[in-house]
Amino acid sequence: MNGLQIFLSQALEYWPQIVAGLGNTLLLAAVATVSGLLGGIGVFYLTLSSNRLCRRLTEAYISFFIGTPLIVLLFLMYYGLPQWGVQMSPLTVSVIGFTLNVSAYNARYLMTAYRSLDPDELQAARAQGFSDWQVFRLVTLPQVLRLSIPALSNQAILNVKDSSVAFLIQYTEFFAQMQDLAVRSFRFFEAYLVAGLVYVLLVSVVVLAARWLERHYVLPGARRKY
Amino acid sequence: MLLTVRNLVMAYDGRTVLDGVNFDLEEGELKIVMGPSGCGKSTLLRCLNRLATPTGGQILFQGEDILRPDTDVRALRQRIGFVFQNFALYRHLTALENVTLALRRLRRLPVAEANARARHELSRMDMLAHQDKYPAQLSGGQKQRVAIARALAMDPAVLYFDEPTSALDPLMAREVVNMLHQLRRDKVSILCVTHDLYLARAAGARVLFLDQGKILAEDEPERLFDSHADPRIRAFFRQELEQQRPEPLPI
């Protein structure tokens, strides 16, 4: 048997674990994308608060989590917190870590889009009698979300790719399984190549979904010309 | 009396923008506010619907002191239509949705009823054919009409216009005059801030002249433009006439 045959036979034998790892990768990426989006919207809402302290704290949150590498956050929670008696599963740590991190990035994207809104539009809504919350929900949010589709979908792509970092805290996602396969078969090049190709495939799906979203939900008048 | 403003003062950043403004607006009346840039015209409108909070004075709207701390500002604003200088339509919504949003979310009308009322107002503004278009697909004049329909749909007691012609080309600006006449025929009370002399003259309404935060005069446009005793007012209108005179056509 040549090297490639060894790799293929090992891959076939190891197939259930690889599929399970792929499922874990998709689970983490999907949860991080959804919770990060919801968290991002929440943080973005707080940045618009009329309370200066609230705005400062929110800014500090965003700066801290954008400035801290995700791996540090994950290690801090997974290896650091048990020192204080707090122990969580790898999935829980990954979901919390990703959510905190992705929320900060998403809030920043939404804030950038917010700056491009016409302030008179928001004032017109207030002049009509809408409350601040209604202005946010009915006028601000639908527009900033639609303006942020490219940035938010880039973040979703990053979530898919960055989920591999969770392997360093014992989360048995796809890359962890491929790493195992590489070690078992001693075919590192093939294992990592296949891993890379699978990530490209996953990212392509996200890209296609993002393009569909952009086509259908782009703000009229803000359509980009390709 | 629909609106009574007494000794209205508005100061911010150490600057007095409105300095004891007094005027009245009757039911069904159209009144124009004119004055140099930065004289406080737009601030005055914003004080009248509490988008800005005056530092002193009294505003009686339908007999109610709207500067009292216990005023329900949101309820007050729902009784006032405000048409912004650049129309301020919600760009993620169609013309119809722009008009129905407040009807559905504030008046809690069912969709069918809100749509029917919105279509009636759009039709009144000759915009029914464009009800499914987004603001980006409309011309300046069309946006203006949708903005008016949006304001009228809430059946307001008064309409405030902030520089309704400044974002329009001259032809569209003339259409605004026709619209004002139409609204006046429908007994809509209007307070219109403008620096457009044509609009002020053609609207056939009394003009308040505001300068440095004070109402210096209230009169018929002709008397104000041509022969007012105050030299500051004469100088302002002379200068405006010079600026707004159309360029001669090239031969």
Approximately what portion of the residues of chain B adopt beta-strand conformation?
15-25%
The overall average pLDDT of chain A, rounded, is 92
Q: Helix coverage percent of residues of chain B?
A: 25-40%
> What is the domain total for the residues of chain A?
1
CATH architecture of chain A: Orthogonal Bundle
Quick structural overview:
By secondary structure, chain A is mainly α.
How is the topology of this model organized?
The complex is a heterodimer of chains A (226) and B (251).
Chain A: H1 3-13, H2 15-47, H3 52-67, H4 70-80, H5 90-114, H6 119-128, H7 132-147, H8 149-162, H9 174-185, H10 188-217
Chain B: E1 3-12, E2 15-25, E3 30-34, H1 41-48, E4 56-61, E5 64-65, H2 73-78, E6 80-83, H3 95-105, H4 111-124, H5 140-153, E7 158-162, H6 170-185, E8 190-193, H7 197-203, E9 206-211, E10 214-219, H8 221-227, H9 231-244
Parallel strand pairs in B: 3-8, 3-9, 6-7, 7-8
Antiparallel strand pairs in B: 1-2, 1-4, 4-5, 9-10
Mind explaining what this structure looks like?
- With 226 residues, chain A is mostly helical.
- Chain A has a single domain (3-217), classed as MetI-like fold, CATH 1.10.3720.
- Chain A is built from ten helices and no strands.
- In chain A, helix 2 (15-47) crosses helix 5 and helix 8 runs antiparallel to helix 10 (188-217).
- Chain B contains nine helices and ten strands.
- Chain B has a six-stranded mixed β-sheet with strand order 6-7-8-3-9-10, with helices on both faces. Chain B has a four-stranded antiparallel β-sheet with strand order 2-1-4-5, covered by helices on one side.
- Chain B is globular.
- The chains are: A mainly alpha (226), B alpha/beta (251).
- At the A-B interface, helix 6 and helix 7 of A face helix 2 and helix 3 of B.
